Amino acid sequence: MSTRSFVAVDVGASSGRVILATVSPDRGADGGAPRVALDVVHRFPNGVIDDGVDSAGKRVLRWDLPGIFAEVQDGLAKAGELAAERGVRVESIGIDTWAVDYGLVDAAGRLKEPVHAYRDARTEATVPVVHEKVPPEKLYEVTGLQFLPFTTLYQLAAEPRLHGYQALLIPDLLAFWLTGSRRTEETNASTTGLLDARTGIWSAQLFEELGLPEGLFPELIVPGETYGTLLPAVAERTGLPPDTPVVAVGSHDTASAVAAVPASEGEDVAYISSGTWSLVGVELDKPVLTEASRAANFTNERGVDGTIRYLRNVGGLWLLSESQRQWAAEGREASLEALLAAAAALPAGGPQIDVDAEEFLAPDGMPERIRAAAARAGTPGGEVLTDEPAAVVRCILDSLAAAYARTLTQTAQLSGRRPGAVHVVGGGSQNELLCRLTAAATGLPVLAGPVEATALGNILVQARAAGALDGGLPALRAAVRASVQLREHTAAAV
Ligand code: LFR
User: Fold this and answer.
1) Distance of alpha carbon 446 from its chain centroid, rounded?
2) Do 227 and 267 reside in the same domain of the chain?
């Protein structure tokens, strides 16, 4: 059987990528799993845009969605060219991005205003307003979502006007611009705080209690279904055939990443999806909606194939990337390689901070905020955490590793699952020091990789929809294991 080609569009908070993937369904002489090879054909930077302050004096942050869409189309054109060189056809396109954020679109398809970025401050005022209407205990009972101040429902409460508009989550907005078809992909819908965790459909009760218009979000679509085919203008600009379908994948990047965790069949799947955030948890088939789970702020997000991603958002490499951005602006050492080497040479047992604190959500001045938090935290050396980048980096990584260990212990207590190893996927899986510290803090073997879990998860769902792969998540994960090299870190090696 010949190879098959698919395109993944994967946009994160700090960069976006368009990837042409080749799936070789042949099982080969060894009867092993199918393989997936990725070619990144286009990369572009992304980041929040400072848009001044609003009438209440709150900082406004936005994303440049038209700019992202232009980059996506450039990437699709490059993917089409590479496919043509290889004499193959792009069978479909799948899109994933971060969750929670949305654009409001009118009947004619125009954006009401540039899209807000979830780290802006407008929900500070609306969290209490929402909780006044529906108390947090009740929200959890219905949606099973952890409290995050930027969840879609708090953002919607800050909108002066919703009537006459539909809310399109970021991947759905890009899919709308590519195909003209409006849908809401299910895994990402589960991050809005408006989906019923038991049924997987919108909670009519919450819409009513929160005064949200019915039909605010377009109809749900599940991974594997098709949004539609390319609009003529997109086909022309990208050079791709107009009948190229855009297929729904786990459009929440974390859903795609977890779909590609290279767990073995039957293994209890514990993971850290490590990027801007660290998403730490296990995969379940039913939500955990207990009061203990709510108190520990665990979330039940929906994954590919109706699975539940039972996890917590732990602070992530955002603390590090924001610090690097600041040091670079000050003309100091900011290269990741140099910083990690210097941090690795520092002794263990230094100061730690609570990486989950809301004070680290916003951009700017990160090293200063970390030093202040370390001084308050009272861990050894915290009061003297120096301005030295290596010391700050070591503090971030020690604190992340400790938070992972705490969260995995809680995951086991709350879910009853006791995984024997933890998979680290995403960009952070390349950070050897963090992986080693994680193994030491958790006492579990850390299986690092793949770096491109999100893109792989995106591709696997498309390949299965096209009949190039078959089976459930275990079969998809076998294809990941056949395609990538994992690195193992053990506590003993630290
Ligand atoms: C990771 C992620 C998290 C989500 C956060 C905000 O990229 O999608 O899962 O909580 O970004 O959308």
Assistant:
1) 20
2) no
pTM (whole model) above 0.95:
yes
* Cα 156 to averaged position of ligand 1 atoms, centre (Å): 17
Question: Residue 26 maps to which CATH number?
Answer: 3.30.420.40
**Residues 459/251, Cβ–Cβ less than 8 Å:** no
Q: How far is the CA of 356 from the centre of ligand 1 (A)?
A: 14
Is 426 in the same domain as 349? yes
Write the residue with the smallest CA distance to atom 4 of ligand 1: 99
> Which domain, by its residues, includes 295?
263-449
Task: Select from 100, 278, 312, 361 the residue to mutate for testing ligand 1; criterion: most ligand atoms less than 8 Å from CB.
Answer: 100
pLDDT digits (tens, 9 = 90+) for 113-171: 999 999 999 999 999 999 999 999 999 999 999 999 999 999 999 999 999 999 999 99
Q: Is 172 in the pocket of ligand 1 (CB under 6 A)?
A: no
Under a CB-based contact definition with an 8 Å cutoff, are residues 259 and 460 in contact?
yes
Those residues whose C-beta lies under 8 Å from the C-beta of residue 246, and which sit 6 or more positions away, are 92, 93, 94, 95, 175, 178, 179, 181, 226, 227, 228, 229, 230
ipTM of the complex: 0.98
Ligand 1: does its nearest atom lie under 6 Å from the Cβ of 100? yes
**C-alpha dist (Å) from residue 200 to 75, 196, 255:** 33, 5, 15
Please return the burial class of 111, using the count of CB atoms within 10 Å of its CB with bins 0-12, 13-18 and 19+: middle
**Best mutation site among 15, 279, 298, 302 for ligand 1, i.e. most ligand atoms within 8 A of its Cβ?**
279
Give tens-digit pLDDT for 333-352.
Answer: 999 999 999 999 999 999 99
Cβ of 275 less than 6 Å from ligand 1: yes
CA of 383 to the centre of ligand 1 (A): 32
DSSP string, 380-422: TTGGG--S-HHHHHHHHHHHHHHHHHHHHHHHHHHH----SSE
Domain count, the chain: 2
